[in-house]
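Technical appendix A lists one of the benchmark inputs used to test multi-chain prediction within the project. The record comprises two sequence entries:
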Amino acid sequence: MAEPQRIAVNPDRVVHETIEGETIVIHLDTGTYYSLRGSAAHIWDMLEAGWSADEVTDELALCYETRADALAGSVREFVSGLVREDLVERRNGDASAQPRRPVASPPDGEFSPPKIEKFTDMQYFLLLDPVHEVEATGWPHAGASVAD
Amino acid sequence: MLEHDFRVGGMHLRVRFAGTELAPLLLPALRHLQPARPGAELATVSIWDSDSTGVPVPLFPWGPQDVRERGEIRGFSDSRVRTVYHGDMLAPGFGFHALSVCDLDSRSAIFWVQGRDRLPWTELAEPVRPALHWILSGPSLHLVHAAGVSTDDGGVLIAGKGGSGKTTTALACLDAGFGFSGDNYVALSTAGRPVAHSLFGNAKPRPGGLALLPGFARELERPDCDAGGEERYIVDVGRHRPELIRHDVPIEALLVPRILPGGPTRVRKGSPGEGLLTLAPTTIFQLPGNGGVAFRAMTEFVKRVPTYVLELGGEVAEAPRAIAGLLRELRAGRRED
């Protein structure tokens, strides 16, 4: 039997907070930030609290009185999106070794597939400068410069 | 050596200059600050340039390849020491060509620049901002990217990235007689009731903002600057309207401006998430340092202070009326949203 897939957030690179059902996530290294609302915030809270993707799916099925296999694809795609954005890392683990924490109730209404709202307008603050040629005595005493 | 002592919140800020060339350029933005109080914790920034003092900066023990995002130097920035190079490696002579180094434990920083001619307009408007951010910030005091304005009913922070209407709204409020703490950065105390402390006593309008508020045209520093390009005008509020400077303002609300042409100017309830999404990224990414600590502080702030969206659609003078109305209602406990 495959080990349950869990995720972990790297606190040195990613900060996040859920307030009144909206999760704000900021990737400190890339300059990208995100808003997760509705089911996305609820699923994030469960994943971050140690729930595996399957446990999340089963919980959603209970909350929304829907078959788990109807929701599994949405949850998998959401987790893949978080991994792609480098917001979380996949961790294999035994459920008994990592007790999950309870989370708040799901949002009201019907289930909507979770969405990751992404903002990249701050990225330019983190753009690297190209390397510049300097003379042998070292920088900051620059010699004849050669642009990349 | 010239020394100037100021109060920022509960901190004693000492600004020291070696040589006489830089003080006239960098001090105007801080001149409005009150004198330091005895016994306050000291934060010191020491400033020098090589051209006028003849004292060169030591050869950097790092290379251009070690300059990372926002100029932070790999291997010379950690939890205690911060080192940032300010320069353009593609420009002749590296452009700005300056260095900020800080020891967080002693709250002391050094700022070096090759010469006065290298200072960009941003340094005249908000001098040694990274160094001030590092030495002033602490468990309960943080520089935040927001404007601060106030009436007798309290103050608001106006958050938003460049172009969102933050400075124009702050200037409109100033024009209407509001108290002014800053148009782009304030120091925010988060121990107890949130209080905004003034740091830079000027406003930096774009030409479009100045066109809406022509009364400020007579109060411009450097009126011939290239404000249509990359620069902005500087309005020295501390010099021209000192009676409106407010040093310590309790904050009643966080405003997120949204420009909606053609609609009414009004204030509607926003969510804490909206407030955090607007306030946190611009603060964290424009101020190199411990983003995690800053994020925690802003998170606590938006949980304690309500967020409102300031929809800007009408005449610019409507914004201060809407903000004054909000503050009146909050003070009287009449706001029901």
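Chain B has a mean pLDDT of 93. Residues 5 and 168 of chain B are 31 Å apart (CA to CA). Comparable benchmark entries are summarised in Table A2.
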